[in-house]
Design a protein that fits this description.
single chain, alpha/beta, six-stranded parallel sheet, globular, disordered N terminus, binds adenosine-5'-triphosphate
Length: 212
């Protein structure tokens, strides 16, 4: 095992876009449908990395997002590829495919438990934080992570603090009025999504005609 900057670098990766998997680190976990990953996700990851002195931020696309079963979600392959392209070549961002490789619905608590030994910070938007008590085994989840919450227009801080029975670290970033739904809508209407997503994601969406 090689030690770099105080972090332990262990087995070579299969799932992290060529980066070694880190162990015993302060890790941010940013999960989502990522259909597609957009700049608000990246700014939240960047802000958390700096503000909480994280070693790494893992972007984890959900396999079968249990809260979005009814709606049509792009294939796991497209969402994985767009996530992978979004985090390259930022050394402290990694894409993790563990949830899309897992069968059945994916629950954040399972992902959190798979990173046992790490110091974990769950990064999420204010809208997601608001609903956290509906998540599978939410009490266990809140015991195992710190929470870093990105402000989101239309969601009040007090409302979130009232809904979440745990101290919240608010990310110091501008509330960004954008969502993957808006980005998909734009793409479907033939409007440009350039700069809403990383350059290579924009190209990928066009080449693969992800949103028709
Ligand atoms: P959709 O519109 O498809 O529901 P989304 O834009 O909300 O997607 P997700 O992939 O579902 O994106 O979200 C992943 C995480 O990123 C969630 O915690 C969500 O709250 C957060 N997030 C998404 N967009 C923003 C935003 N504009 N500001 C802050 N957090 C955001």
């Amino acid at each position: 095992m090689i030690r770099l900057s105080g972090c332990a670098w262990s087995r070579p990766p299969e799932s992290q876009g060529g980066l070694p998997i880190l162990s015993d680190v302060k890790r941010g976990i940013l999960g989502g449908t990522f259909d597609p990953p957009h700049i608000a996700h990246l700014i939240a990851g960047e802000t958390a990395y700096r503000q909480l002195a994280l070693d790494v931020v893992s972007f984890i696309p959900a396999g079968a997002p249990w809260q979005k079963f009814e709606s049509s979600v792009s294939s796991a392959e497209h969402r994985w590829e767009m996530t992978r392209l979004s985090v390259e070549p930022i050394p402290y961002f990694t894409a993790d495919d563990s949830e899309i490789r897992r069968d059945g619905p994916t629950f954040t608590i399972d992902t959190v438990e798979s990173f046992a030994g790490d110091d974990l910070v769950l990064i999420l938007g204010a809208d997601a934080a608001l609903g956290i008590r509906s998540w599978h085994r939410w009490r266990d989840l809140l015991e195992q992570v710190e929470l870093a919450v990105a402000p989101r227009p239309g969601v009040g801080r007090h409302e979130v603090e009232h809904a979440v029975p745990k101290t919240i670290e608010w990310l110091d970033m501008a509330p960004l009025d954008m969502s993957a739904t808006d980005v998909r809508e734009r793409a479907r209407k033939g409007l440009s999504i350039r700069f809403y997503v990383r350059e290579r994601v924009w190209q990928y969406v066009q080449e693969q005609n992800v949103y028709g």
